[in-house]
Amino acid sequence: MDFEFGFDAFPPRSVIVIAEELGGTHRPFAQNIAAAAMQRGEKVVYFTRKKRADVIALMDLYQIPHTENFKIFEGIRDRTLLPKECTGDLCILDDFAALYVGATLEEMREEMWDLVDRSRKNKGYLIILDSGILPHDVEQMIYALADGVVRLLTTAEGGKIKRFISIPKMNGIIPPEQYIPFTLNADGLLVDTRERHG
């Protein structure tokens, strides 16, 4: 199946990585996926080192809706504080790289296998990853074992910032052959899905 972008287009019961190098768009991107899940009536659980008020403020800034189906576990600064079972239909792991600083390649392999196994029990996992923090081989292990990878890219062009979505892999879906442009401003995160030729 060809990939047609939408925040509700990601496969269920999967581990999806949302990765960005030193940027601020991967959280709103993941939160838009969470909002789509909430609109379907799913329960979303969000694990973060931040305060709940900060997460909600960011969502409000970009006009991302949230409901009573959105539960936030705040102040998680150590991976040992992550519960072994997530009670949500969609579980979001924020600050993933910071939680796993110092993890060996073998530890990351076991953690990813565990997440994939848990995702098959009728729930999805979103990993919000700041790329470039973990050692290269550890980061590559995350990408290799995830069901899908979404990379958010930023370039400068003519004095303006241009943002793109790259989807190198996604289970059950043929990845798009081109970058997908998007903008992030006070109107929210807007994805340009117009087909491009040439």
Automatic annotation (TrEMBL):
Keyword Nucleotide-binding: yes
Keyword terms of this UniProt record: ATP-binding, Nucleotide-binding
Single GO molecular function: ATP binding
Matches recorded under InterPro entries: P-loop_NTPase (IPR027417)
Top-level taxon in the UniProt lineage: Archaea
Name of protein: KaiC-like domain-containing protein
Organism: Methanofollis liminatans
Classification of source organism: Archaea, Methanobacteriati, Methanobacteriota, Stenosarchaea group, Methanomicrobia
